[in-house]
């Protein structure tokens, strides 16, 4: 090899290394750690071509605290997440809502960013209620509510306030992204890792008409809701609940093969697919960063790739 060619190769290697280093430092710089406060507003107009831009954890807290459909200030608006968010394990106090309130009727594009280290309380309430990063979404015939391109890495739901004695209800739907999906709502290209529900040492006799639901992505799915290319996994401890329960530690569905890989998708009203082993790892495929989930069940191996 000529000397000039060797020098060119060395320079090219250095440039590539610098590019990777710069990209890595920029990616780390995008992580914003929550300080427990709530911002006073958002940047942008909330329109499709000028969405509200969420650039800090405090701004995300502002969104979830203020999207109540009964107030309506964020109805039919558009939001984009501009950074990774670390909730720092501080209590997420906006996680629970009752039926008919606090529905997210808007569009949220995570743009491949991650929300991590979320700790939320399950506060028992009278009647049906929902718990999640977004407790409730959809329900508007005139607007398709959507949450897409989002990763949730570590979301833990702990027992909070409990109704006393025989009034204990736990008629709850718990999901890592959404507690309940109403009609005309969509979750698309979302992944949840480290979903956990831990009610501790309880002994709860639920009413006969109540159901405790917990799934890694969406706790409950109404007719008319749609889930596309999503996958979630975690663990659930609800052994002390005596009554009707619907839970799964892996949420997904087998679909057709594509390029030698099995894809896990969730179709309407199909809650869970339970493989024996699930492992999710970061991989690089054709220059694109993605996560690969591997599952093994009934003697067959499956895998799912989710692109950031």
Low-confidence stretches: 2-29, 253-281, 283-289
Structural class label:
mainly beta
Described by strand count, sense and barrel closure, the largest sheet is: 11 strands, mixed
**Secondary-structure element pattern, one letter each:** HEEHEEEEEEEEEEEEEEEEEEEEEEE
Shape: globular
The assembly state of the depicted protein chains is single chain
Helix content: 10-25%
Mean pLDDT: 75
Beta-strand content bin? over 45%
In brief, what are we looking at here?
The protein has 308 residues and is mainly beta. The protein has helices at 3-29, 57-66; strands at residues 32-33, 52-54, 78-81, 85-86, 91-92, 96-98, 103-104, 107-122, 129-137, 145-159, 172-181, 185-198, 204-205, 211-215, 218-221, 225-228, 231-237, 241-242, 244-247, 250-251, 254-258, 261-264, 277-285, 288-297, 300-307.
Task: Provide a descriptive summary of the structure in words.
The protein has helices at 3-29, 57-66, and strands spanning 32-33, 52-54, 78-81, 85-86, 91-92, 96-98, 103-104, 107-122, 129-137, 145-159, 172-181, 185-198, 204-205, 211-215, 218-221, 225-228, 231-237, 241-242, 244-247, 250-251, 254-258, 261-264, 277-285, 288-297, 300-307. The chain is globular. Mean pLDDT is 75; it is low at 2-29, 253-281 and 283-289. The chain has 2 helices and 25 strands.
């Amino acid at each position: 090899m000529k000397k000039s060619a060797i020098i060119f190769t060395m320079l090219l290697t250095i440039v590539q290394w610098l590019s990777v280093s710069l990209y890595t430092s920029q990616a780390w710089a995008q992580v914003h750690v929550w300080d427990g406060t709530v911002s006073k507003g958002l940047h942008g107009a909330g329109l499709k071509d000028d969405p509200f831009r969420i650039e800090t954890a405090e701004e995300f807290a502002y969104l979830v605290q203020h999207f109540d459909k009964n107030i309506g200030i964020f109805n039919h608006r558009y939001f984009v997440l501009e950074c990774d968010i670390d909730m720092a394990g501080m209590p997420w106090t906006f996680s629970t809502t009752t039926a008919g309130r606090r529905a997210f009727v808007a569009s949220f594009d995570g743009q491949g960013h991650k929300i991590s280290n979320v700790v939320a309380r399950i506060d028992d309430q009278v009647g049906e209620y929902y718990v999640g990063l977004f407790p409730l979404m959809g329900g508007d015939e005139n607007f398709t509510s959507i949450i897409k391109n989002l990763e949730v890495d570590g979301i833990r739901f702990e027992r909070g306030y409990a109704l006393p004695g025989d009034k204990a209800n736990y008629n709850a739907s718990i999901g890592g992204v959404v507690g309940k999906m109403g009609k005309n709502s969509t979750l698309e290209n979302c992944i949840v890792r480290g979903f956990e529900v831990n009610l501790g040492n309880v002994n709860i006799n639920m009413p006969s008409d109540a159901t405790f639901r917990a799934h890694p992505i969406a706790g409950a799915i109404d007719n008319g809701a749609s889930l596309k290319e999503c996958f979630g996994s975690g663990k659930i401890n609800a052994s002390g609940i005596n009554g009707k329960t619907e839970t799964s530690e892996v949420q997904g569905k087998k679909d057709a093969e594509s390029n030698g890989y099995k894809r896990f998708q969730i179709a309407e009203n199909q809650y869970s697919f339970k493989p024996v082993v699930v492992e999710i790892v970061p991989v690089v495929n054709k220059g694109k960063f993605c996560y690969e989930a591997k599952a093994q069940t009934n003697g067959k191996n499956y895998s799912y790739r989710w692109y950031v």
